[in-house]
Design brief:
Layout lengths: L1 E5 L2 E5 L3 E3 L2 E3 L5 H4 L9 E8 L3 E6 L5 E7 L1 E8 L10 E7 L5 E4 L3 E7 L3 E8 L9 E2 L21 H4 L7 H11 L1
Antiparallel strand pairs: 1-2, 2-10, 3-4, 5-12, 6-11, 6-13, 7-10, 7-12, 8-9, 8-11
């Protein structure tokens, strides 16, 4: 397993076993993962979405997420909403697909969302807490803080929640919004 640290995020790439039959990939091993992070995951989820769908950006104060794309291709957006972090307000973009095998470990107070580039995609995520929507904050895809990563993203389909989420134009406004959420 290869681990790349990007500020508070970790990009984890498991080693695939490839032969004439295809690919075998161990995507999670608690013992090995403990060498990367002490996070205890308690819930596994996945979403299947069609091309042009954007889901997110959502986050909360407690939940760690380990995310990947097991089918199709997505662009994962992550925004650091941790007021105490040196990289507060910084956004990140990762292109994930079934052929890259990588996972992104996202800490609490980071919002994340994904845009489906392929005809369909499956987004997998492990969570360290049980899902409770009322505890989450939401950031709109059209927020100026995400401009560096959203030029190629033209979502055709957003949920009502994501359409109505807060559009944040600068770190000072993000700080005010987060302080009101927590």
């Amino acid at each position: 397993m290869k681990v790349e640290i990007i500020d508070e995020l970790k990009k984890i790439t498991p080693e695939p076993y490839i032969d004439e039959r295809g690919i075998y990939l161990e995507i999670f091993n608690k013992k090995e993962f403990a060498t990367v992070s002490p996070v205890n995951f308690i819930q596994d989820d996945f979403s299947r979405s069609k091309k042009g769908v954007f889901r997110g950006l959502h986050g909360d104060q407690e939940t760690w997420k380990l995310v990947s794309c097991s089918y199709g291709e997505i662009i994962l957006l992550v925004l650091n909403c941790d007021i105490e972090s040196a990289s507060f307000g910084k956004s990140y973009s990762f292109q994930l697909n079934a052929d890259r095998y990588c996972q992104i470990l996202i800490p609490p107070m980071f919002a994340n969302g994904h845009f489906v580039m392929s005809e369909q995609a499956i987004f997998n995520y492990k969570q360290s807490t049980y899902y409770e929507q009322y505890k989450q904050f939401s950031i709109n895809i059209n927020s100026a803080l995400l401009n560096d990563h959203t030029q190629s993203i033209k979502p055709l389909t957003l949920s009502k929640r994501d359409q109505d989420s807060n559009s944040i134009d600068n770190p000072a406004n993000l700080k005010l919004y987060i302080q009101n959420c927590i």
